Amino acid sequence: MMIELLQQWGVLGLFLGSFLAATVVPFSSDVLLVGALAAGCDPVSCIVSATVGNWLGGMSSYLLGWLGRWEWLERWLHVKPETLERQRERVSRWGVWLALLTWVPVVGDIFAIALGFYRVAPLRCALFILIGKAARYIAWAGIYWGIVG
Predict the structure, then answer these.
(1) Tell me, what's the pLDDT at 52?
(2) What gap in Å lies between CA 103 and CA 111, rounded to an integer?
(3) Among the listed residues 93, 114, 90, the one whose alpha carbon sits nearest the alpha carbon of residue 102
(4) Which residues, at least 6 apart from 14, have a Cβ–Cβ distance to it below 8 Å?
(5) What are phi and psi of 105, to 5 degrees?
(6) Where do the H-state alpha helices sit in the chain?
(7) What is the pTM of this model?
(8) How far is CA 114 from the centre of its chain?
(9) CA-CA distance, 145 to 81, in Å (whole number)?
(10) Would you say the C-alpha torsion 108, 114, 116, 121 has a positive or negative sign?
(11) How far is 83 from 110, CA to CA, in rounded Å?
């Protein structure tokens, strides 16, 4: 079923799926990448499509954090100011380097939102998010070709 869908949608489907997977939607873009490669899609196009889609999704999570307000978290989610201060200290300690880990399932989305929320260097975060996500897909493609090729 997934192979047929990827054959129909190709790298566009991979791009859209990778974008959604980098937001708060729980989804595995790694499976999509391997599926697209198994369906015979061009490897370079797959890596570029998955990387750009996942990067834009990660940047949308960053933007979501950027738009967030302390007052909202305190009021609606009942997060205490002390908790937000401790989190800010942790994010400040690692800074932009956390952006390299936004590809990690589940916590990567939280890192992207936190980086935006605490206004960590937008251009450097964008670059490091891109590097981390590209490395992820290059590694998955390498693993796939190592097994199949």
Answers:
(1) 98
(2) 9
(3) 114
(4) 6, 29, 32, 33, 36, 41, 46, 49, 50, 53
(5) -55, 145
(6) 2-21, 29-38, 43-67, 70-76, 81-94, 107-117, 122-148
(7) 0.87
(8) 13
(9) 49
(10) negative
(11) 15
The two three-digit tokens of residue 43, written as one number? 């490897």
Residues of the chain with pLDDT under 50: none
- Give me 93's structure tokens: 């300690």
How many CB atoms sit inside 10 A of residue 79's CB?
14
State the DSSP code for 102: T
CA-CA distance, 51 to 132, in Å (whole number)? 9
- What pLDDT was estimated at residue 53? 96
What is the CB-side half-sphere exposure of residue 111 using CA atoms within 13 A? 22
Domain layout of the chain by residue ranges = 2-148
CB 63 within 8 A of CB 27: no
Structure token digits, residue 24: 């708060």
99/114 Cα distance (integer angstroms): 10
Contact 103, 133 (CB under 8 A): yes
